[in-house]
Amino acid sequence: MEMETPKCAEGEVLIKVEACGICRTDMKCFSYGQRDLKLPRILGHEIAGTVADTGPGVTGISIGERVQIAPGLPCGKCDFCKRGWDHLCSSVQIMGFHYHGGFAEYVLVPAHGVKNGVLNPIPEGLSCTEAALTEPLACCVNMQESLDTGPGDVMLIFGAGPLGILNAKLARLRGVKQIILIEPNEDRRRKAKDREFDYCLNAYHTEEIRLFTQEKEINVIIPCCPGMEPFGQAINLLGKRGRLGFFSGLMGDHQGQADINLIHYKELSVCGAYGCSSGHNRTALSYLAEGKVKVKDMITRRIGLDEVMSGLEMVRKMSETSIVIEY
Ligand SMILES: [Zn+2]
Ligand SMILES: [Zn+2]
After folding, report:
1. Band of residue 255 on the pLDDT scale cut at 50, 70, 90
2. Where is the Alcohol dehydrogenase-like C-terminal domain positioned along the sequence (predicted)?
């Protein structure tokens, strides 16, 4: 629909959106709703663009500058914010959830977001389309900092969607030597073979995995897909003192059982990660700008704003890796 271009009040910044990613969260918001989603809302939280206007009192940001938006707008004052966990801020508000997001030509960044540093200048050499993938990468940074992944780990990832691939790319950067993938979708599994995975399986086969790791235990598992089943499998597959990343929120009814007692017997750790802090966001943007994590090969579809509905359908059908709207 046609909407008026928002006007900047005191402290606000207007962004002309240049690129916005569409992800599974948008599809979930659209189809099922989401805990933090307040309707009516323009979705889109993976936003990069150009500063089109600034309200009175805004300093340090100039019109024409390219910026990426960290979507969480923290209060900056509570204990969580002070500890750098601003995504857990008790009054955090999110672009595309509480405020209009990037599935529009212009997006208004509220004053408390601007003040708390959600606008990150995009370094030269990095396109807005690539910068739009900062947020999903930042969610992986959050996950893997909690899991403390590193050179000693044997990692298993469920799902070769964009987040599975980004987690694998990040794990490589953090020094993980062996990364195994379980992906039942043949097309996704075939494409993943040329990417960051050392061994790709279509399903959970304990014996095959043991052969591949030569009896080495898997000590980190990140399910990057919705559904309860991978959890039960992860608890079974993890070695002693293994770490499980609860990264993807469950969708629909949570069928399936997990042998929770194994967490006790094997002394497993379960880490949750939801979204990313402004610090994770800055780290992710620097990885992209410095070429430490390359995402160009993941952007398999670029669409126009008028194709958002078909973009959401592509996400549902899992026919692309990453889809970015370009304006
Ligand atoms: Zn997303
Ligand atoms: Zn706060």
Report:
1. low
2. 162-287
